[in-house]
Amino acid sequence: MDHQTLQRHDDTAGAAAGPAPDRARRLFSMCLCGLPFAGLGLGAPRTAHAQECGRILGVGGPSGVTKLVSAEQIEQAAAQQYLQLKQEATSKRALAPANHPQLVRLRAIAERIVPLTADCNPRARQWQWEVNLLASSQINAFCMPGGKIAFFTGILEKLRLTDDEVAMIMGHEIAHATQEHARERIGKTTATRGVIEIGAALLGLGSGGRLLADLGGQLLTLKYSRDDETEADKIGLVLAARAGYDPRAGVSLWQKMAEASKGAPPQFLSTHPSGPTRIREIEESLPRVEPIYERAPRPARRFEPAGS
After folding, report:
1. Is 213 exposed, middle or buried (0-12, 13-18, 19+ CB in 10 A)?
2. Is 173 one of the catalytic residues?
3. Minimal CA–CA distance to 74: which of 218, 236, 171?
4. Distance of alpha carbon 236 from alpha carbon 206, whole angstroms
5. How far is C-alpha 259 from the chain's CA centre?
């Protein structure tokens, strides 16, 4: 319910409803009570988007709460932030050229995975996919909304990732994008802030309507929920397996991550928690994913790990 709708409700309430401040407080309370349920669909079941992509492991599509935020807005914000990131990297001579061996490798793996993403989310057909490599010692990688992928050289070099392990990371990150986890996180934040700002406006404490202005900058640092991470692991396994990469690499990947986190935790683990539970969940998924891998055509080319 927006500010104008609330105001119309207030105008028609009549004098019997009591003084204006009391009416405003009641309206704010109504909004607070109704927001997480029928009005905005928080907690709504996952849509059918990802039935084909995730059905083998029982994963549905993006949450209904994503509808609170325009996909176009989120994807536009991501594209702008990604462009800024590339510009900053270029100015520091940290953006790998197209002929960099590890960038060639990343793009070859992406060429096998990306065509499969429309089975996870039909919007992926419209995305302007990009894959870039940034020179940084950080152990990090991500896929922003709209298909904007970046790997840091640190994750390739320090973990000496095989192609299969790279595919596990890429599939996992792409799954966050196709499941619209960032949109869901921001949708929930927007809903909460929207209620607070509407209430503040009604009570004369401030102005409402400023919902997405400063949320775009969060896209690189969002911390996903445990459920989000589990979904991304499962769908990532399926995507990578269908692309011809061994899903058992999901176990060796997270074992390497666990080893890397014994000192100062890598940046990747600030938003991607690791641990025995995660590895066990991947292992439990393997019996259903390995047959997909066995049927999948294999990559025509294999690459050596970084630093070999």
Report:
1. exposed
2. yes
3. 218
4. 44
5. 25
Are 176 and 191 within one domain? no
User: What is the residue range of 26's domain?
Assistant: 3-43+186-217
- Computed from CA positions of residues 243, 225, 136, 130, in that sequence, does the dihedral angle turn out positive or negative? positive
Same domain, 73 and 144: yes
Buried b (16+ CB within 10 A) or exposed e, 7-39: eeeeeeeeeeeeeeeebbeebbeebeeebbeee
**Is the separation of the CB atoms in 271 and 223 below 8 Å?**
yes
Q: Per the domain annotation, does 124 fall within a domain?
A: yes
Residue 254, CA distances (Å) to 134, 168, 258, 272, 285 in order? 22, 10, 6, 10, 14
pLDDT tens string 92-140: 999 999 999 999 999 999 999 999 999 999 999 999 999 999 999 999 9
Q: 264 and 227 in one domain?
A: yes
Q: Are 5 and 211 in contact (CB under 8 A)?
A: no
Give Rg (Cα) of the chain: 22
Token reading at 37? 């349920």
What is the model's pTM?
0.73
Q: Cα torsion at 167, 168, 169, 172 (round to 10°)?
A: 120
Catalytic residue among 130, 165, 173, 229: 173
